[in-house]
Amino acid sequence: MPSSMARLLLLLPTTTYRTQAFVDAASKLGVDLVCASERPSTLEERAPDNLITVDFADPDGAVETVARFARRRPIDAVVAVDDLTTVVAAAIATRLGLRQNPVAAASAARNKHEMRRRLEAAGVAAPRFRQVALSEDPARVARLVEYPCVLKPLALSASRGVIRADDPDGFVAAFRRIAVLLARDDVGLHGEVREALLVEAFIPGREFALEGLLMAGGLQTLALFDKPDPLDGPFFEETIYVTPSRLPAETQTRIAEATLRACAALGLTEGPVHAELRVNDAGAWVIEGAARSIGGLCSRILRFGTGMTLEELILRHALGWKIDSFDREQRAAGVMMIPIPRAGRLVAVRGKDAAEAVPGVEEIAITAHLGQELVPLPEGWQYLGFIFARSDAPEEVEQALRCAHARLAFDIA
Amino acid sequence: MSDDLKTRVQELIDTTINPAVAGHGGYVELIDVQDNRVYLQMGGGCQGCGAADVTLKAGIERLIKEELPDVLEVLDTTDHAAGANPYYTPGKA
């Protein structure tokens, strides 16, 4: 291996959907890749220079582990994959003097209450909010809040544990349901984020997602997604993302401006950002802002310049390498995160061939495996799979996704 | 030459790779070697495992290429969605 080859550390939770995309991007770039996961690889002993175990829940310990590694194998860039690793990545990068967000900023983006506090302080349009300890009496708190409201865990993603309440009885039920969820071992939260939840005002309006890249505090919008399915609750399962957005240009600009202001309020300056916003007559409201790129397999629909993937773009930025173009391809693209219709064991998937035959549909990836116990929102944390489509117009993409989904059948026992 | 390379890849799988992945209930099967490209299939705990790509690219491929520099690429032909008992399962971000 040439001594001049750049070495990149990827923080890859074993639960991520993104491994193949990031590893392929690293391979294409020709970097020496070091993969860190929170649980040991079977081949770690055989490949100690490329596979390491790092506790993502212990930033201090993780920093020491990586610092020891870096003393014999210097690292040129560190990239966080998924929410679980953003704070650790910032801590590691700070120790090693590499490009990343400040630790405080990454931490703020990981805690929804802290995020709300900073957005409020900066005057960014966002829901009114309050943090409620799980030790509090939900019936008492229910009499104090305005309705409709949304209850959510402080540090989960993809709408897990997010529940709308329209009255005090609904509030109490949602509170107790989230408390049970947070007590589960598989939720993977520790400390204060496991002991409280966030209550915020429900913001009516259509929802959108902005995928961007921060560079020295400036925001490059990579894609703005429409979410054409209404997200009014009681649960907020994301289904369809379509880009380019069909919003008027002026509204798209306001969304980008709101996202930039939110990033500045949080202190985020570098790397990918995935923001969720609602738009209504009062403007663009920041609902969520994450210091990581889009989740699941959704990035498959994004291509930039002459065919660069989102992951390659992210790695290039982390390495400080030139990015020739941020222009997304001309064609409209979209993805459906296939919702889990009900709980049970997945017995069979039917109609995949017919669904893939829908014009515009490029691929259907069923990521749940046969025999798997399916758990729908709000407790669920996995997808059934993804449908990917491209066409000349976003309306055609949306139609293709819906048509393909209608042809799929999932036998759940 | 391809047969010789295939034999050496198989030996590496038998003596080094499979004993390691067996710890997570997995196994790797050599499907073929064509034009110095190795085609593998992963089974057991490896099939559908969220760490399969890391294991393959950062582990298996690297090991094979270090021992057998003639190998250009290692490719995974596994149908991971058909895995019945993956060791690590992917979940939402």
Description:
The complex is a heterodimer of chains A (413) and B (93). Chain A has 413 residues and is of the alpha+beta class. Chain A contains 11 helices and 21 strands. Chain A is 29% helix and 28% strand. In chain A, strands 3-2-1-4 form a 4-stranded parallel sheet, with helices on both faces. A 4-stranded antiparallel sheet of chain A has the order 5-8-6-7, sandwiched between helices. Chain B is of the alpha+beta class. Helices cover 39% and strands 23% of the residues of chain B. Chain B contains 2 helices and 3 strands. Chain B has helices at 2-21, 52-67; strands at 26-34, 37-44, 73-76. Chain B has a 3-stranded mixed sheet, with helices on one face. Chain B is elongated. The mean pLDDT of chain B is 83. Chain A binds chain B through residues 12-17, 19-20, 23-24, 27, 33-35, 37, 39, 41-47, 50-51, 82-83, 157-158, 160, 290, 292, 295-296, 365-372, 381-383, 385, and chain B through 16-17, 20-24, 26, 48, 50-55, 57-60, 62-63, 80-86, 88-93.
What is the helix content of chain A?
25-40%
> Which fold name is given in CATH as the topology of the domain at 7-107 in chain A?
Rossmann fold
Protein chains sharing the most extensive interface: A-B, 46 and 34 residues
Number of helices of chain B: 2
Give a quick account of the main beta sheet of chain B: strands, pairing sense, barrel closure: 3 strands, mixed
Helices and strands of chain B, in order, run as HEEHE
Which outline of chain A best applies? globular
Low-confidence stretches of chain B: none
Spatial separation of the terminal alpha carbons of chain B: 45 Å
Percent range for β-strand residues of chain B: 15-25%
